Amino acid sequence: MWHDPGTWIALGVSALFIVAGVVLHRVFTRILKQGSAEPIETDKAAHHEQ
Question: Each residue's pLDDT tens digit in the chain (50 positions)?
């Protein structure tokens, strides 16, 4: 089983998804903890006020 290349490919892809999930979780939690100091003004809102 451990000599099969398919096993190592599957393990590598699984590890890649786990690492990507951990990194995205850290990024999202960091963004959510910081919050937004002021609302982002979009072009539609800027044109609507004029």
Answer: 778 999 999 999 999 999 999 999 999 999 998 876 666 666 665 566 55
Q: Which H or E run contains 46?
A: helix 43-49
Q: How far is CA 24 from CA 5, 9, 44, in A?
A: 29, 22, 30
In degrees to the nearest 10, what's the CA dihedral of 34, 35, 36, 42? 120
Alpha-carbon span 16 to 10, nearest angstrom: 10
d(CA 29, CA 32): 5
pTM, 2 dp? 0.60
Helix (H) or strand (E) holding 11: helix 5-34
